Every structure is written in structure tokens, then in C-alpha cells.
Amino acid sequence: MPTDPAEDPERFRAHAAREMASMFDDVSGRYDLLNRLMTLGQDGEWRRVMWRAVPEEARAVLDLCTGNGVSLPGLMRPGRTVLGMDVSLGMLHRAAGRQGRLGWAPRLACADAFRLPLRKGALDAITVAFGVRNLRPRTEAIAEMSRVLRPGGTLVVLEAAAPRPGWFAPFHAFHLRRIVPLLGMLSPDPSAYRYLSSSIFEFGGGLEFERALLAGGFLVREQRSFLLGATRLWVARRVLAPGEIRSGEAAALQIASGEGPARSEMPQTDPMADQEWRWWMGAQTMTSAILFGALIYGLHVFLNLNAELPLEPWQRRGLLLLLVGGCVGFALRTGLLATRWLGPPRRRPGP
């Protein structure tokens, strides 16, 4: 069962920077592996959507709660300064290792999200991936992000959300309450994943966060949901405060490079080498195959025991539909993952 906030008061208290730093230091080694297992390998695609929400003309971009830096590569552009800040030194060491030593690599800093070492209006955009729910009180965190963003600047938040009312809510809640803590047993600190489960429920379905954004001087321009609402994306613009003067807009960047169709591509540090990427794809393929097998077995048992199950006719039809749909979906997913896993190495174009 997930830890109740009352049973873990230190991690849930306001401004718990020390507790968050210690927890993420402990789990940094297997952070990527567990993220991919818990999101069914979809977190990479969600981050790409987050990257595309950042205006191309943004010259100064902060990835807050950057962790091990997995969100940094897609933010890099010629002429753009990318910053990565986190409270965990352990995570930042891993971020530094994955970014390489290119002169235009992101600048990393250990910082408290409530006291960012930046002047007012210094940034054109801020991204936060799976970190906002750890910032309490969120109204103060939003106020600090508003302070360092220029008027008209963009805030993009990607976050796991609690179940909203609907047919998918029981499955979503089961995943959070049972599967997430179970997968956390693979971590050096299983309590961190019990906290993860509880923190998602504490964050809520996102409506309260949207109200906090509005109260904090942001106008939500776009909302998206992934995995039937298990993860949500918000794109917001910082509006002018009363008496505030709009700063100059960042001019569009002209990429000065060679001729040819690839002239806009720039060298990038890849977050994973080919061998590691194939390892991840293999892990995703095996996980999908195991789930497919479990669904096939569940369908077999259901068909054999259908007449003996104490279910109403509509419940039988609904369960059969879910099992068949799950089998088809995971069969297609397993085949797609296997094709990518066994196929040619992935291409690495510029962002």
C-alpha cells in the first residue's frame, strides 16, 4: 500500500528540499529503468511533446527538477542557453555524465526551486517534468517560477496525475496503489516509490493545479493527457502583473550553418548509447510480452469459468471486451517494440 502523507510527514512537509535531495540521491541509479517500466516505455514520447511546446525563439530555458538530465537534450538549440537545476546532487552528477563536454552543453546547478539563483524575468521558458508534485506549497513554487520568467514567457509542466472520475479510474488507481510500489522493490529505496504513489494522489487530477496556475499569474493555453489521463501536460503563458511592463520579445534565431537539408541539425549528446538503448527496448519488449501473456491467460481462464463467475451479463460482456482489447493492444505493442529492438540502430537527428 502507498504511504499516507500522515505516515511520512517529512517528505510531505513544506520546503522539504533536504528530504527530496536525500530520496533522489538514493534512487538515482535505477531511476531511468523504473520510469520506463512504470510508464510502459512512453515517458520519452511525452518529453518530446513537452520539448515541442517550448517556443523555438526562446533563448534562455530552464529545466527545473531536471533530475538526471533526461529532459535536457531535446531543449538544446543553436543560440539557446539551457539550464538544468535540481536539489539532488546525486542526480546532477548523472546529468553531468550524460551531457558530455560540448561547449554548448546545458549548464547544471544545484538549487532549491523556491529560491532560484536567477534574476527577475531572466528566462523565456521553463519546463518541469514529473517534479511539480514534489514542490510544496505549490503556490509558492509557481510564484518563484513566475518571478524568473519574463512576461509572456512559457511554462510547460508534465506531471503524473491522480485518477479522475470515469471508467478507467479503478485501473489507474490499482496501478498507482499496487504496481508502482511493487516495481519500487527494484529500487535501493522502496519507500521512495510508496511516496511516489502517495504524492500522485496528493497532487490530484490536475484541476487544483490549474487553479493555482491561474492564481499565480499564468494563462493555460494548452492541456493534453496521456495514457487516458495518467499523465498530463500543461502549457501556460506568464501574463503581465498589474503595473508591470512587457519586456522585449526574443527575436527568432537564424541558424548559420552549411548548405543542404541537414543544415539545421546540430551535434547532440545522446542520452543513451546504442547498446543501452537496445537494452531499454529489450526490457520494454519483454515487459510488454509478459503482460500480453498474462492477458491471454486471463482470457483463457475467463472463457473456461464464464458460466461459474458471479457476474451480471453486462459485467461479463465488459470484462470480455477489456480482455480481448488488452490482448490485441499488447500484441500490437509487443510486435512494434520487437521490430524496433531487432531493427537498425535509431537515428539521432538534431532537435
Write a concise keyword list for the protein shown above.
351 residues, alpha/beta, 7-stranded mixed β-sheet, 11 helices, 44% helix
Q: What do you see in this structure?
A:
Helix 7 (169-183) packs antiparallel against helix 8 and helix 10 (274-305) packs antiparallel against helix 11 (313-342). This protein is 44% helix and 15% strand. The chain contains eleven helices and seven strands. With 351 residues, the protein is α/β, with parallel strands linked by helices. The chain has a seven-stranded mixed β-sheet, with helices on both faces. The model is unreliable at 250-272 (pLDDT under 50).
- Biggest sheet character: 7 strands, mixed
What proportion strand? Answer: 5-15%
Shape: globular
What is the helix/strand order?
HHHHEEHEEHEHHHEEHH
Q: Regions with pLDDT < 50 over 5+ consecutive residues?
A: 250-272
Q: How many helix segments?
A: 11
* DSSP helix fraction: 40-55%
Q: What is the CA-atom radius of gyration, in angstroms?
A: 22 Å
Strand segment count: 7
Quaternary state reads single chain
Strands of the widest sheet, in order across it, are 3-2-1-4-5-7-6
Average pLDDT number: 83
Structural class: alpha/beta
> For the terminal residues, how far apart are their CA atoms?
40 Å
Layout of helices and strands, plus pairs?
Blueprint: H1 9-12, H2 17-27, H3 31-38, H4 43-52, E1 60-64, E2 81-86, H5 89-99, E3 107-110, E4 123-129, H6 138-148, E5 149-160, H7 169-183, H8 190-203, H9 207-215, E6 218-226, E7 231-238, H10 274-305, H11 313-342
Parallel strand pairs: 1-2, 1-4, 2-3, 4-5
Antiparallel strand pairs: 5-7, 6-7
Helix pairs in contact: 7-8, 10-11
